[in-house]
Design goal:
Blueprint: H1 2-15, E1 20-24, H2 29-39, E2 45-49, H3 56-72, E3 76-80, H4 84-97, H5 102-123, E4 126-128, H6 134-139, H7 161-171, H8 175-179, H9 193-196, H10 202-211, H11 219-232, H12 249-259
Parallel strand pairs: 1-2, 1-4, 2-3
Helix pairs in contact: 2-7, 10-11
Length: about 260
């Protein structure tokens, strides 16, 4: 499967005349797997660490993975682009207008990172490769709209988190990354994904996602499914196409002329 995904990435780049791959690496399992799959294509792969007021242990994992990649794959270029000052100035500006909250700031960090990746992609004729898994992208919508959701392709978006962990082991990803509690790295208090997702583990959310089409479920399963839906429903707008107001006046005008 690993080779199939890498070949799919490479074929997409070739079909669209793209010369490189650009991926943000956070020190988490998803971005570590994706960046490694990109490296395996043989295409120039820009692995970008983008600390923003980052907890040191999280940033260290990102840098360690970048070093691991460059030692293993000669086609990988690892850059550390510190966005502290960019975020500080933006945060200060928004505070002046009272357009400021912890949640908004977390999403802004994700969007600043995506702006950075697209800047590099534009210069290097690349594509920005997404790192979202099936639960995040199609389950509970655990991503920032136009942040980590604003990618060109999503190679692992049809794989559950447990499958990504297994893939990471097969790829030889650093054990520290495999063992680390999943986190989006956007909160300065170090909160994990589980903290943000109602206390549910990824395995529990996967089980709940699979219950959606099941008719007969136990009370325990029903409780799990309800918790899952309570997280999913506020994020449904992220997983749908942008609503477009349909201009039907052209059709009406055309019909009136044809009847005259």
């Amino acid at each position: 499967m690993k080779d199939k995904i890498s070949n799919w990435i490479k074929e997409y780049a070739s079909t669209n005349n793209r010369k490189s791959l650009v991926v943000g690496i956070s020190g988490g399992i998803d971005s570590s797997v994706v960046s490694t799959l990109c490296a395996k294509t043989g295409l120039p792969t820009y692995a970008i660490s983008m600390p923003i007021r980052q907890i040191k242990s999280q940033n260290n994992l990102s840098i360690d993975h970048g070093s691991w990649l460059t030692n293993k794959f000669p086609n990988v270029i690892h850059h550390i682009i510190n966005l502290d000052n960019v975020f500080f100035k933006f945060d200060l500006l928004m505070k002046g207008f009272r357009f400021n909250s912890d949640h908004a700031n977390a999403n802004t960090k994700s969007r600043l990172r995506m702006v950075t990746l697209h800047q590099i992609s534009s210069v290097k004729q690349g594509i920005v490769v997404g790192t979202g898994n099936k639960i995040e992208d199609f389950g509970v919508g655990f991503f920032t709209k136009y942040g980590d959701g604003g990618v060109d392709i999503s190679p692992i978006a049809d794989f559950y988190k447990t499958e990504i962990w297994q893939m990471g082991k097969e790829l030889g990803i650093l054990q520290e990354i495999i063992d680390a509690p999943p986190t989006d790295g956007l909160w300065e208090d170090g909160r994990t994904d589980q903290d943000q997702l109602g206390g549910l583990t990824y395995k529990q959310m996967e089980d709940a996602m699979k219950l959606e089409d099941k008719i007969d479920i136990t009370e325990e399963e029903k409780d799990l499914l309800n918790k899952y839906r309570s997280i999913r429903e506020p994020n449904l707008h992220k997983m749908k196409e942008i609503p477009v107001f349909k201009n039907d006046s052209r059709t009406q005008t055309s019909d009136s002329k044809s009847r005259s």
